[in-house]
């Protein structure tokens, strides 16, 4: 008798798909129809699998996705835990804004974790925290200690939700996941001092049970490309710009040269940081040019 059940793809290795069904993980192969239809199951997919009389498991159907982001891809992401390092590599407001804008475009909520704060000197750390206070003010949860994350994260991840770590190479994602789940031993690596960036230590996407859902470690999201974004939509992915725009004189204001623009007014009054506005203009230029700057690749 053939049995059919639903599950979530939690891992992919050598053409096999590990699917979580209830309290067990079933290793399956995908039916040939996926190749024929130019479809490919990915980690995070909600799927149907069937087991034949010989006990062989097959992945037979991919259920509709909420989203599909990253390279390698991760499906149905509910929340991003963005890891930004204080040093090695150095803290960057430009990089932070790129990530936040990208995930806003993808309609995925973000929390921010500052890693390696213990390696920064007192003055540097105070400056970083002052900058991050602005992001807390506009609605992004900020975490400074992994112990606080370890305490709060399991209860924050709801039933079958998928949270993923993201951030620059070498920012400490694998180290953080080691702290969050002690039985996971992800390889960690030293920073390349010549490039001021880390080497990827995570090469595949995998979901780990945490709380009522899953936490993903992924090598993706290291380079953010804005060129697919429509230039007139970009301002809507800066959360405080979107809120302020209701007071702009012109509907669809792009906050550049338009008169009576509330966003520019707030920048002048320091209600919106100058760095956020400048990073917005840089992203517009990137979209206009149709390519990502070489130094950010």
TrEMBL record:
Note accompanying the cofactor annotation: Binds 1 zinc ion per subunit.
A Gene Ontology molecular function term of the record: metal ion binding
Reported cofactor(s): Zn(2+)
GO cellular component, one term: cytoplasm
InterPro entries, per the entry: G_CP_dom, NA-bd_OB-fold, P-loop_NTPase, Ribosome_biogen_GTPase_RsgA, RsgA_GTPase_dom, RsgA_N
E.C. numbers: 3.6.1.-
Family label: Belongs to the TRAFAC class YlqF/YawG GTPase family. RsgA subfamily.
Protein name: Small ribosomal subunit biogenesis GTPase RsgA
Organism: Lactobacillus apis
